[in-house]
Design goal:
Elements lengths: L4 E6 L4 E7 L4 E5 L10 H9 L3 E5 L18 H14 L5 E6 L2 H11 L4 E7 L21 H9 L3 E3 H6 L3 H7 L2 H11 L2 H4 L11 H6 L4 E3 L20 H14 L2 H8 L1 H7 L12 E6 L3 H5 L1 H5 L1 H4 L3 E7 L6 H4 L1 H13 L5
Parallel strand pairs: 3-4, 3-5, 5-6, 6-9, 9-10
Antiparallel strand pairs: 1-2, 2-4, 7-8
Helix pairs in contact: 1-17, 2-3, 7-10
Length: about 350
């Protein structure tokens, strides 16, 4: 039986909490918001059993990892240096990097800027979007600065959720007033279980209209949660015990660090200007869900991925699945990931 090991890695001024299982070629797992290393709980064992050294981290600002007061510490360059540092701190020279939600831009950019370290990449939910980090309608590869594009998408009288998050203001008051309820309803509202009952088709609907009418936009003077859905009962893939873990992590870490990722999106876009238009050269796979709202607004980005990624293995879309891909569909996800890993050149 493989033992799961927790450790704190010293990256020279930054502490990163890492959870490790198995031995073999390194596969580094990077979570998004509002999550933690725990969102990879179903992948660690599967990877270890298949002969890999699986390591899931808490990104800076989360869990037991370092928290910094300056929002500038959460720009993409610092996040990428963290994953580079993790590989080195583990005594490895290379890794396959897998990222979900905010972990996906980190994974994509890490493999894009450091192909000598990250020999392959899997982006989950968020496709490779060049300097834009998150592909949006009319700006699939960051052609328009995020701050300008967000205003355009939201329309008059409301804010795109990434701007609402980035204020580090009302959103924190909203979440802290009922942390457990907010996390529960936020996760449920973006799940395939919830969205699959609404009769939506992200492949045919106007993505801007979907964004403007959903919880992805917040009318001025209102709370994001007003547009959330609430489950009558939790789904099997998110138990009360699972929710306990996430709630406990944010009770200890707070929210300023995680939300600063959003605050710094335009600064990150500026950081990546020298890379704009350059290809991502390592083997790459994108995994998404049928009802993942990110897929809906990134359809052009996904369709044009082969233009930017010469070794693109395509996009796998799981039927009935929402945003929380590896948690909602762990068996399908593990099968797709292991199939991709097996096809890589010998390590």
């Amino acid at each position: 039986m493989t033992t799961r090991k927790h450790q704190l890695l010293d990256l020279g001024g930054t502490r990163i909490h890492a959870v490790e299982e198995g031995s073999g070629p390194l596969v580094l797992l990077v979570h998004g918001f509002p999550e933690s290393w725990y969102s990879w709980r179903h992948q660690l064992g599967a990877l270890a059993k298949a002969g890999y050294r699986a390591v899931a981290i808490d990104q800076r600002g989360y869990g037991r990892s370092s928290k910094f007061w300056d929002p500038a510490q959460y720009r993409i360059g610092a996040l990428v240096q963290d994953v580079v540092g993790v590989v080195k701190a583990l005594g490895e020279k290379s890794a396959v990097i897998v990222g979900h939600d905010w972990g996906a831009p980190v994974a994509w950019v890490a493999a894009w800027t450091h192909p000598e370290i990250f020999r392959a990449v899997v982006g989950v939910s968020v496709p490779f979007s060049d300097r834009g980090l998150v592909g949006l309608p009319g700006s699939p590869f960051g052609e328009v600065a995020p701050d300008r594009k967000h205003i355009e998408i939201a329309g008059p009288g409301q804010d795109f959720y990434q701007d609402y998050f980035g204020t580090l203001g009302p959103v924190i008051n909203e979440i802290e007033s009922d942390l457990r309820g907010w996390l529960r309803d936020a996760v449920w509202s973006l799940s395939g279980d919830a969205l699959g009952t609404l009769g939506i088709n992200l492949d045919t609907m106007d993505p801007v209209e979907v964004i403007r009418g959903s919880a992805m936009c917040v009318p001025h003077g209102h709370r994001m949660r007003e547009r959330f859905l609430s489950p009558q009962r939790l789904p099997g893939w998110l138990t009360e015990a699972d929710l306990d873990v996430y709630v406990g992590e944010f009770e200890r870490s707070g929210l300023s660090g995680p939300l600063s990722y959003y605050r710094e999106m335009t600064a990150s876009w500026n950081e990546l200007e020298p890379m704009a238009g350059k290809p991502l050269t390592v083997p790459a796979l994108h995994i998404s869900g049928e009802f993942d709202v990110v897929r809906g607004w990134a359809l052009e980005t996904i369709a044009r991925a082969p233009e930017r990624i010469p070794q693109y293995a395509g996009t796998k879309v799981f039927a009935g699945c929402g945003h929380w891909t590896q948690q909602e569909r762990p068996d399908e996800f593990n099968e797709a990931l292991l199939d991709f890993l097996k096809k890589l050149p010998a390590h």
